[in-house]
Amino acid sequence: MSRSDVLVDADWVEGHIGEPGIALVEVDEDTSAYDRGHIPTAIKIDWKQDLQDPVRRDFVDKAGFEALLSERGISNDDTVVLYGGNNNWFAAYAYWYFKLYGHQNVLLLDGGRKKWELDSRELTTDVPAREKTSYTATEQDASLRALRDEVVAAIGKRNLVDVRSPDEFAGRLLAPAHLPQEQAQRGGHIPTARNVPWSKAANDDGTFRSDDELEELYKSEAGLDFSKDTIAYCRIGERSAHTWFVLHEILDQPNVKNYDGSWTEYGSLVGVPIELGDAR
Amino acid sequence: MSSDLSGCGAPAGGVTVTKDAAGKEAIVEGRVLSGAPVSTGYARLLGTGDEFVAEVPLGEDGGFRFFAAPGEWTLRVLAPGGVRAERAVSADIGQITRVEILV
Predict the structure, then answer these.
(1) Mean pLDDT value of segment B8-14
(2) Under an 8 A CB cutoff, do A166 and B47 touch?
């Protein structure tokens, strides 16, 4: 994979609106933005309602994913183009999720909803009708997802990339600063993790930085050893999906996993090591 | 946006502040105006050295809200047409720092 295989810009999307074989999807946690206006022909996927199991803390299972995509009118052959708010966090998460369930043709709109809005491009409240399909997913690709035991075993051995803000990394905040801070779990980070906030990979308008800038950021500035496997984490796994996308899809690093349990799981585990303080 | 904190997204205008939370949080909030409220745009909270900390889309009333750590911050506003503005703000626990930004 490289940038041109996985990213499209706003002009490309504008030129492909309504084209058969393309499924344009806005993904967010708070889908009220979609309801107020979205890119013409885009359908919505609600990160929480549609992609998370309503009872257990986990994804919807294979059958659930198949039912979702069939109902939304997405077929196995469609090229799925994802975008969303929050600098594409949830769209990057959905991208990772589509790959996890074996969908091959997935693209991300560079800059997402924010770039589209800042460009003053067209938004509509019309909800498109897509004919139902019979979607077939594969079993989850375990090579893309890290679970907690693997993360604990990776301390001091693999690259651990904490993509939260420096204040969350240090333990001064428990959530991004747009959220209230009262939480059950402890603050801090996984020992030996490097702090490379997701935002360093993005420009102000939400687009990804250039390949050279990204290489410089992770290799030179953060000192990641690309000969080792890497696990990225944040608080709930969507900001780290953004970094997974950068490392695995844009920079083509082979063994990169997203730890979607992230800090809300790790910071609540009994008996695991936690480190406090700023990055060294 | 509910008070369910299992998510991580930033709703337009920022999360509503409850009476209970107001005394325990270091809140920075305000509005962006250009005559009328600027309802399409983004407010970013930046730390030392322009380090990105958080961002919310502006609300219908041009509003934004952050739950910061105590300290000095920079607010940066982005809006269509290349609009960009910055203000220095400070935050402290139990205080609501209100900022009005004219662009």
Answers:
(1) 79
(2) yes
